Amino acid sequence: GEEKYASRIAKAILENRKQIINTKELAEVIRAAVPKNYERGRIHPATRTFQAIRIEVNRELGAIEAGIPVIVAKLRQNGRICIVSFQSLEDRIVKQTFRRLSGFCECPPGLPECRCGATKTVEVITRRPIVPTPEEISANPRSRSAKLRCAERVAA
């Protein structure tokens, strides 16, 4: 989950696993495992860890990676797919999947021809993600981490 202190947290959980009975106790073990100044007034130090656990249990990143090509395959020519992501891990998968579907060759440089089978099925519309404006964020603070990426189906 891109947690800076993941190894510290994992070690603390393993050392205290017999005492952890509920999520509140798990959150306290995590808080004790990270430096005191880690919160910086923003979020609880356990937030990222709980998010990472949820992502792994639900296999969310794999579902995104597998789902985008299926959706694109069902689009008509000039049909569009737009995806809003709220985490950098999700956004990276969307970006890389769109890049691969846009025909970007992933072969090592120097090969005389493409071996990865790159074929262009989409044209990426948003080279950079669309993010909320300060006005949107003040009206809806939960939108602060949202990123929108869009692609358009091209002729098969």
Characterization of this structure:
There is one protein chain. With 156 residues, this protein is mostly helical. The protein has six helices and three strands; from the N terminus they run H-H-H-H-E-H-E-H-E. It has a three-stranded antiparallel beta sheet with strand order 1-3-2, with helices on one face. Helix 1 packs across helix 2 (23-33) and helix 4 (60-74) runs parallel beside helix 5. The chain is elongated. The two termini are 36 Å apart. The model has no long low-confidence stretch (mean pLDDT 89).
Please write out the topology:
Blueprint: H1 6-16, H2 23-33, H3 47-58, H4 60-74, E1 80-85, H5 88-101, E2 122-124, H6 134-139, E3 147-153
Antiparallel strand pairs: 1-3, 2-3
Can you tag this structure with a few keywords?
156 residues, mainly alpha, three-stranded antiparallel β-sheet, 6 helices, 3 strands
Short description:
With 156 residues, this protein is mostly helical.
Kindly report the average pLDDT value: 89
User: Going across the major beta sheet, what is the strand order?
Assistant: 1-3-2
- Taken as a percent bin, the fraction of beta residues is 5-15%
The secondary-structure element order is: HHHHEHEHE
Please tally the β strands and state the result. 3
Span between termini: 36 Å
Helix amount: 40-55%
The geometry reads as: elongated
Mind describing the biggest β-sheet? 3 strands, antiparallel
